[in-house]
Amino acid sequence: MPLENNNNNQNQGATGAAKFVTSTVGNVVGGVGRTAGNVVGAAGRGLGDTVTSATGSAGKPVGDAIGSVGTGVQSGADGVSKGVENAGQWKR
């Protein structure tokens, strides 16, 4: 008498292979997107700090705005990357 798997064989055969492939692709794409977002975010904050340092109080609003844009891009890329990874893992 064969033993039944409690997950109703959802991770076997073609479905299991599809989940493996989509999970791998989702994790890779999510990781690359997160890395790119981190690089852009850090560069934006660095550029904003440079503008603020070079121009003093007159350029502080511009420097702060550039830094905020960098942080926003990083946060957005992180959210999208997490969504891609979740989709790759068949999460809702």
Q: What's a concise summary of this model?
A:
By secondary structure, the chain is mainly α. It contains 2 helices and no strands.
What does the secondary structure layout of this molecule look like, with pairings?
Blueprint: H1 13-55, H2 60-88
Helix pairs in contact: 1-2
Please characterize this protein's 3D structure.
- This protein is mainly α and 92 residues long.
- The chain contains 2 helices and no strands.
Taken from the alpha-carbon principal axes, the silhouette is rod-shaped
Helix content: over 70%
SS elements, strand count = 0
Amino-to-carboxy terminus distance: 36 Å
Which residues form runs of ≥5 with pLDDT under 50?
none
Global structural class: mainly alpha
**Approximate strand percentage:** under 5%
Query: What is the makeup of the main sheet?
Result: none
Output the helix-strand order: HH
Average pLDDT metric: 87
Give the count of helical stretches.
2
Rg: 21 Å
Oligomer: single chain
Please supply descriptive tags for the structure shown above.
92 residues, mainly alpha, 0% strand
